Every structure is written in C-alpha cells, then in structure tokens.
C-alpha cells in the first residue's frame, strides 16, 4: 500500500470511528514527520490521552504539518487562530495561514482569504477584485458560504 492509499484508508477509519486502527496505519508516517499523517493524527485522540493532552498534541501536529506546507493543515491551524480555540486568538496569523493555503489551491481557504481581501481585514490589504475572484473560485468548488456571500 503506497502512502496515498494509507492516508485515504486512515481517513476512512477515522470517519468510521476506528481511530486505533487508523493510528496503527499512520504511526510509521507520523514518526517520519509526514505532513498528511500529522494532519490526520491531529483529528483524533488516543486511548491514554486526557483532553488537555489531546488538544496540545493536536495543535502540535497541525503546526508540524503546516510547517510542511500541507494546505489542509494550514487552513485548520488558521481556523484555530481565527477562533482562539486551542490556540491564542490571532486573526493576523490566521489570515497569513489562510493565504498560504489558498495560494496552494485549498478551496476552503480561498473563501477565508478572499473575504480578508474583499474587506481588507486581519492585516490583509484590501483588494475587492482579487477577493471576489477567490470567493467565486471557492463557490465553484462548493465551499459552504461562498455562494451565499456572492448572492448577498
């Protein structure tokens, strides 16, 4: 089984609630520091963890995966900073993470970064045209909220 198959299978196991099996499948990739494996590992707790330990590890995994430029991790970490959940509230850092993920083609980040461009918010210079372009791209990719925004 190649890495992509392993990650797809692990994601399916996580979605079905079989996190122990997903962890076994991901462990060698986590140990190697592979960003996609770290991102998937950030999504579930392991049996011996407290809630605080899980939250701390989850953010650490997201940070490591984001450092590896994995777009879903950049976006997920941005959401943490944007909401102040699991991290300190830092909308400027969140905006930079959304921008990086959007520049990598991540659909959900296109909406977030597009909105920051449209409004000129969170340290992003206002550019209505570029913002609308990204929001339209997000809508074309079925991102929730993008179509509604465009319909106004």
Structure summary:
The protein has 152 residues and is an all-alpha fold. Helix content is 72%, strand content 0%.
Average residue-wise pLDDT: 96
Oligomer: single chain
Query: How many DSSP-defined strands?
Result: 0
How big a fraction of the residues is strand? Answer: under 5%
Shape: globular
H and E string: HHHHHHHHH
Helix content: over 70%
User: How far apart lie the N and C ends?
Assistant: 46 Å
Name the poorly predicted regions. Answer: none
Structural class call reads mainly alpha
The number of helices is 9
Q: Tell me about the largest β-sheet.
A: none
Domain count: the total is 2
Sequence-ordered SSE layout with sheet pairings:
Elements: H1 3-16, H2 19-31, H3 35-41, H4 51-67, H5 71-83, H6 91-103, H7 107-119, H8 128-140, H9 146-151
Salient structural properties:
152 residues; 9 helices; 72% helix; 0% strand
Q: What does this protein structure show overall?
A:
The protein has 152 residues and is mainly α. It folds into 2 domains: 68 residues; 62 residues, no CATH class. It is 72% helix and 0% strand. The protein contains 9 helices and no strands. The protein is globular and about 45 Å long.
């Amino acid at each position: 089984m190649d890495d992509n198959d392993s990650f797809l299978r692990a994601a399916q196991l996580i979605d079905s609630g079989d996190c122990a099996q997903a962890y076994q499948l991901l462990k060698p990739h986590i140990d190697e520091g592979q960003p996609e494996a770290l991102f998937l590992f950030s999504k579930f707790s392991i049996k011996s963890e407290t809630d605080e330990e899980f939250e701390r590890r989850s953010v650490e995994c997201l940070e490591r995966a984001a450092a590896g430029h994995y777009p879903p991790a950049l976006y997920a970490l941005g959401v943490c900073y944007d909401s102040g959940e699991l991290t300190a509230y830092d909308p400027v850092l969140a905006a930079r993470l959304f921008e990086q993920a959007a520049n990598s083609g991540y659909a959900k980040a296109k909406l977030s970064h597009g909105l920051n461009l449209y409004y000129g918010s969170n340290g992003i210079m206002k550019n209505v045209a570029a913002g609308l372009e990204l929001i339209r791209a997000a809508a074309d990719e079925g991102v929730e909220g993008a179509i509604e925004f465009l319909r106004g």
